[in-house]
Specification:
The structure is a single chain. The chain is mostly beta strands and about 270 residues long. It has 2 domains: about 140 residues, Immunoglobulin-like (Sandwich), CATH 2.60.40; about 90 residues, Sandwich (Immunoglobulin-like). Strand 1 and strand 2 form a beta hairpin. It is elongated and about 55 Å long. About 15% of the residues have low confidence.
Length: about 270
């Protein structure tokens, strides 16, 4: 039997490992200029042609009667943005049983569980986020820390994020409240560039007031001020102030008053 020198065996092993690692994820550029839209689209479409997308929340968690996602990542070139700031790796925090949305802004991307170097990357979810699937939602039923990345850009462009899920210590589900007055879900989409939607419950017919404040407590806009019947209602803010001009990027607070009962929810306006 012919015995090969050890350095040759080592070289063969490293080459084989490199070939396997390349096959395990979409090829991505290392350094150099950002990928073109055509290159991104090819990477994403080639990957999901051979590896079916999986891990999206079931219809029961995303249908019209389901709670809105607890938080949202805007997906753009080349980061996941949850707070409207320029930080590269954003983190959102939700409670067991809540959902998180990824919403396309530009480019062709994916949301893939794990880290780019993990051998089991994508085992929990692996979903395209592009013009064909502009919004994807993932359900998080179990407490833990869930890193994720974009397959075409996770390693070369550090396009990554984190979802932290905390235990529901109140021992109740995160679904909308079934009684009482106030917001029944967080604002959505959040963050957003152009608008924010709100869903709230009126316990009995009466006056409702919804106003937007900045982080310093300054009144920015009045959204609602009138009488509503009992039930669940929705409203929308167009991200404009009392003078009609678009507000600056940043964190705002929606303050709701229903029959004297107040509640609030955070709204992030992105650049």
């Amino acid at each position: 039997m012919v015995r090969l020198p050890r350095f040759i065996l080592a070289f063969v092993a490293i080459a084989a490992l490199g070939t396997w690692a390349t096959a395990a994820r979409v090829a991505e550029p290392v350094g150099g200029p950002p990928m073109s839209d055509a290159a991104m689209k090819l990477c994403v479409s080639d990957w999901y042609a051979e590896h079916p997308a999986h891990g999206a929340a079931p219809l029961s968690a995303t249908g019209p009667l389901a709670p809105a996602p607890a938080d949202t990542f805007l997906v753009t070139n080349f980061r996941f943005d949850s707070d409207g700031r320029s930080t590269q790796i954003d983190t959102v925090r939700v409670v067991e049983g809540q959902t998180v949305m990824w919403k396309i802004v530009s480019g062709f991307h994916s949301t893939t569980s794990g880290k780019p170097t993990d051998l089991d990357a994508g085992s929990l979810w692996d979903l395209p986020v592009d013009s064909g699937t502009p919004e994807v939602v993932v359900d998080f039923p179990t407490a833990g820390t869930y890193p994720f990345f974009c397959r075409p850009h996770g390693q070369a462009f550090n396009m990554r994020g984190v979802v932290i899920v905390t235990a529901n210590t109140a021992d109740v589900g995160p679904s909308p409240r079934v009684s009482g007055a106030g917001f029944v879900a967080p604002a959505w989409p959040n963050p957003s560039r152009a608008y924010a939607n709100f869903r709230f419950r009126v316990d009995r017919a009466g006056d409702v007031r919804l106003r937007i404040y900045d982080s310093s407590g300054r009144l920015i806009a009045g959204v609602l001020d009138g009488a509503f019947d009992a039930g669940v209602h929705e409203a929308s803010w167009n991200a404009r102030g009392v003078g009609g001009a678009r507000v600056k990027a940043g964190t705002y607070w929606a303050s709701l008053e229903v029959n004297g009962v107040r509640s609030s929810t955070k709204v992030v306006i992105a650049d």
